[in-house]
Amino acid sequence: MAKLLLGIDIGTSACKAAVFTKDGEVIAQATRAYQVYYPAPGWVEQDPLEWWEKVCQAVQAVLSAEGVSADQIAAVGVDGQSWSTIPIDKNGRVLHNTPNWMDNRAYEITERVKAEIGEERIFAVSGNRFEPTYTTPKIMWFKEHKPEIFRQTAVFLQSNSYIVFKLTGAICQDLSQGYGLHVYNINKGDYDAELCSELGIPIEMLPQLYPCHQIVGTVTPQAAAETGLKPDTPVAAGGLDAACGTLGAGVIALGETQEQGGQAGGMSICMDYAQAHPQLILSNHVVPGMYLLQGGTVGGGGTLRWFKEQLGAYETQLEKETGRNAFEMFSDLAAQIAPGSDGLVFLPYMAGERSPIWDVNAKGVFYGLSYDKTKAHLIRAIMEGCAYALHHNLETAEKAGIKVSVLNAMGGAANSEVWTQIKADVTGKPIQVPASDTATALGAAILAGVGVGIYSSFEQAVKQTIQIKRIHQPDENNHRVYQHYYQLYRELYEQLKDLMLKY
Q1: In angstroms, how far is CA 2 from the centroid of its own chain?
Q2: pLDDT in tens, 201-232
């Protein structure tokens, strides 16, 4: 009987379960959506219990697909969105919805801590800015604003570690998600007890750290009953979705770079040492001994999803009638518009912005609207705005002397040849596209495969599972056009940021 691997991806808007052969072929996949809640300005929450419910449904769906059975699943890997803060009590009960990676409720706490302890002190340990979207300030927020919850909390978990807990009963913290905790010393790969004390975070509330591919437990009888998996199926610690997507895009060697087109956008540059940058994000890769210098933007596939929900009723109805994906229709419309969208520029700061501007007050903006602008202009401007945000991060890294030559794209946005070509033209860099839709889940599955010995190494796993489907070369004429509009994009934010702070 063929050995198969299951990858589970806990995204922002939905979870995905995908079953792979050891050669990386997708046998079955299923997606289940869940809610994002906005209970107050700057607050963005999700319910981990909903994640688990939808994971169970997605896993059941793939296990019922033709050619798949629970007996064939050799191991399970789980990846998840960054910077969750899930309080669970000693009985494993979730005590509160988790703020997610867009949540800024801890802004005042971060400003106070920066003044009292100092950004330099925290950056020296973590290699990351002290910003409210990270996990650390959210733990402190629970302590200050929900003391009854904090007192009951046994441990704070990340998105993937919560699903691993539900599958196995094991409490763990994988290394690639450690960067969300500023008390995690990224050079030493362990918690800094002294900084824990300074920030008032009990170190016992932080789970034990594990390599991402390590098998931390097996599927319990209860989890087996809920998911359809076989009891005692091995489960790896898993990792950060961006890091698993980087692995699933074939980026594991020094200087290789992933371009992310999921709900969020950004890039991950593979490094062999922990090279921090004050405007970027630094994490462990899921590959042992490697690191990722990341640019994480709010602008990604989520911007076009917002457009579909608010202004895409026609395409949504056509999707129901014809079965053709609305996002494919959006790509067709965008292709009708010339590079630069006839002067329409979009700032994709739909929930503030992360790197490299780090402005929780940044807001989404369409600049250049006029009567001659159409829906197609709006769609192309959204795609271009996200590409400008990507370019801003790449430019920031390159100004620090980090060389980037080729990008490997992953995420749903990479399915759009139009959007991928826009990114190539804006950045001036070739973009390679592996199996984009499943790269993140594939990365999680590879972790499990390495953990149980199906792959002898990460190098062997990448060579065996990942193939480039298409390559987008930048168009020099379009790149020149985009250089002009990129400068306008940058200037718009600089001119508007004080107004964004004020109103």
Answers
A1: 31
A2: 999 999 999 999 999 999 999 999 999 999 99
